[in-house]
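new request in #modeling-help
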Amino acid sequence: MIEVKNVTKSFDDGRTVLHDVSAKFYSGKTNLIIGQSGSGKTVLMKCIVGLMRPEQGEILYDGRDYLSMSPDQVKNLRKEIGMLFQGSALFDSETVLGNVMFPLLMFTDMTPAERKERAEFCLERVNLKGADHKYPAEISGGMQKRVAIARAIALNPKYLFCDEPNSGLDPKTSIVIDELLSDITHEYGMTTIINTHDMNSVLGIGENIVFINKGYRDWVGDKNKIFRTSNEALNEFVFATKLFQEVKDYIISHSGEHDGQ
Amino acid sequence: MFMRKVVSIPDRWRVFFTRTVTEISKLGVDSIPLVIVISLFIGAVITIQMKLNTTSPLMPAYSVGLATRDIVLLEFSNSILCLILAGKVGSNIASEIGTMRVTEQIDALEIMGVNSANYLVLPKVVGFILFMPVLVALCIGTSIAGGYLVALVTDIISVARYEYGIQAYFNEWYVWYGFIKSLFFAYIIATVSSYYGYYVKGGALQVGTASTNAVVSSSILILLMDVILTKILLQ
Ligand SMILES: Nc1ncnc2c1ncn2[C@@H]1O[C@H](COP(=O)(O)OP(=O)(O)O)[C@@H](O)[C@H]1O
Ligand SMILES: [Mg+2]
């Protein structure tokens, strides 16, 4: 479990992007951070993984306080972290296989044959075959995402972070990626945190949802509660598209009750 | 600050060596054609100009060869060569690392627990410095050959006099002076350009700006360092 306590983050220009955010992210669950573009999801995730340092607050990885760790401890913790970046962030100069083998090369004593075996296993796990020797620029966005997932799970991380895993993907590929992330999370009992503004993902895999609104943590719940919320900002976010408004009307007309938080 | 991150023990020596070899090939070996073409022409031009500017009966004819050699040894094969390489290698380094920054590849390295500055920059600095003497030697040889070609195919100066000139009053220290300077310049190019690339913020446009800034700053630093080293080494 990852616990974020009272995190505040502002930038050099004086703007405060995160205000006193607290949240819990559970092991073996797909934890979603949702919110509009610019609400601070990426900044929150970067604070949690340590790419940015908040001015205030605590970040606890199963009780271990990240912000007060020594550089060596940070380094060791990072071996337990896998991250999928918004643009995949694959190494351009390495092949698909090279990308997935990279963490193994840096952090294990595996022989080249073992590394290859493990990398191929991971690529198979994300249903990507036959692209081993292609370069990132030669494969589609959806494939790049899969490679990035394979690279992120190569070291069997305890914590998996995904920043908008389906941005730039068509709806069908998005769902496939979401399901893959969900399956992997349950299979390995990882603590997975996913940033998204995609309602399809929310409804598909939202087991624990944290709603960020203009830098404040505004709401926490799961996908079953999200349609019944009385939180105005969240309603606005969720029902931005007509389809979901219709779904809501349907649900309301069938139960007629609200559940707020 | 930046260099403290860069200069630390590599996480994996094997990886470091492999990357250094790659960088030698990318930054060094790939610069060989440019160095050869430029040196050949500049060597030839220097020879011709020396002849044109020293048409005095008081100057011995071999002075053309001598002057060509000394200009090449003292300044062209190190300072000027490095200014040219700052354009090629500097922009290459800054745009490569800058692109990795804006596409979050550097963040990806950091998340894995890799010291990205050390992993990306140190092999470039070490590789480029190691290969620099080769480029300088190549430049010296090719420039002298350029002058020789002028002597051979034109009647501006005779081959015998040129050959005598390039061997006359030879000061070995000039060679060392050139090599020493070039090592400093190589260090400047590799570190300054890496720095600009590493701290890019934004997107493709900013990568372009960073690459320009890298070339300009390394060039200015090279010129400054040239003055300082000349004062120290030649006086
Ligand atoms: N490095 C930075 N420096 C200054 N401001 C930033 C930086 N990164 C993000 N921001 C600002 O923080 C706010 C939240 O951004 P972000 O977390 O990327 O939003 P999103 O929820 O879309 O991921 C935005 O207003 C953005 O401009
Ligand atoms: Mg974002």
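bot summary: Residues A 11, 17, 35, 37-43 surround adenosine-5'-diphosphate (ligand 1) (CB under 6 Å).
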